[in-house]
Amino acid sequence: MDLIPKDILNKLIAHGRANKARMEAGEDTIDHLPVVKLFTPDAGATWLLTEIDPDLPDLAFGLCDLGLGYPELGSVSMSELKALRGKLGLPVERDLHFTAKARISVYADEARITGGIIA
Q1: Per the confidence metrics, is the pTM higher than 0.85?
Q2: Under a CB-based contact definition with an 8 Å cutoff, are residues 47 and 80 in contact?
Q3: Measured between alpha carbons, how far is 43 from 54 in angstroms, rounded to an integer?
């Protein structure tokens, strides 16, 4: 099974295109809802991704929490996520039951207060 299925990948790329167009027009970017939640089942890391760069499809953007108490908005390499293994050698997984309930900025604010992603 692919880490990110085609329909979710297409939505991430569409969000990336929308934000690229807004940046090129000198406008603020869109505060998207997260599209997908990824996590390490054996290492405490979590990612809520909102978009993928349409020009660099290996580069995703979202809220990244490595389980160290300092979650941050930023970019992550999809190939690195696919290659990543936790303490027991388990790969990154997609939360099949995740449904975003807020914009990424809300998750980021909450994560900074609590020291981790709560989703």
Answers
A1: yes
A2: no
A3: 29
Distances (CA, A) of 39 to 10, 59, 80: 20, 17, 13
Query: What distances in angstroms separate CA 79 from CA 24, 46, 47, one per listed residue?
Result: 27, 16, 14
CA 63 to chain centre: 5
Helical residues (DSSP H) of the chain, grouped into ranges: 6-24, 78-83, 104-114
Reported as a single tens digit per residue, the pLDDT across 14-66 is 999 999 999 999 999 999 999 999 999 999 999 999 999 999 999 999 999 99
Distance CA(107)–CA(72), nearest Å, equals 10
> What is the rounded distance in angstroms from the CA atom of residue 108 to the CA atom of residue 89?
28
